[in-house]
Amino acid sequence: MTEIVHVALLADTHGWLDPRIAEVARACDLVVHAGDIGAACILEALGADHARVVAVSGNNDTARHWPAADRAALDGLPETATIDLPGGQLWIVHGHRLPARTRHRRLREQAPDAAAIVLGHSHRRAIEYTPAPWILNPGAAGRSRAYGGPGCFVLHATVDEWVVETHVFDPLPRRRRRPS
């Protein structure tokens, strides 16, 4: 029987995780967050069902942007990460350190042996299968600039084939605060 690993790919939660994306992630073996997490509770929620969570820091993953009580969690966030999966390596980076017009080319130059590169930062979904390695940007999984609605990808990885499944949801209405 062929081993298959299901990997939830998300980014740019900025402190709020869409509950429908959390549900998709719960069905996966591994969860990857490509930065701009915004709070430790996001990583805790993603790992709540004992899924392995791999996350990298984004440009907004700084003490200034996180709740004071969560700042210790920032120390454990690397700028990049690599995961070995059946069929190849997945390289994770937020992508904010490179100019937009050359970002994909330069990331491919930095990780030429990866099968795919997962990034965030732009909040815009992108899948580029050529040239190799693949570029996978799942867009925003939170409320902030979730163009086309919040979303994520699920990568189904076997030794012989990788398949990317896209999940996009209508934005949820924001609760209005009542005056006190």
Report the helical percentage: 10-25%
Succession of helices and strands: EHEHEHEEHEEEEE
Straight-line N-to-C gap: 60 Å
> Sheet with the most strands?
5 strands, mixed
| Count of individual domains | 1
Overall SS class: alpha/beta
Radius of gyration: 16 Å
- The low-pLDDT segments are none
Provide mean pLDDT, rounded.
90
* Proportion in β-strands: 25-35%
Describe, in plain words, how this protein is organized in 3D:
The structure is a single chain. This protein is 15% helix and 28% strand. The protein is an alpha/beta fold and 180 residues long. It has one domain (5-168): Purple Acid Phosphatase, chain A, domain 2, CATH 3.60.21. A five-stranded mixed sheet has the order 3-2-1-9-10, with helices on one face. The chain has a five-stranded mixed sheet with strand order 4-5-6-8-7, with helices on one face. α4 links the parallel β5 (88-93) and β6. The longest helix has 8 residues, at 19-26. The termini are far apart. The relative contact order is 0.22. The mean pLDDT is 90.
Concise structural overview:
This protein is an alpha/beta fold and 180 residues long. The chain has helices spanning 19-26, 40-46, 71-74, 103-110, and strands at residues 5-10, 30-33, 52-55, 80-85, 88-93, 116-118, 126-128, 134-137, 151-157, 162-168.
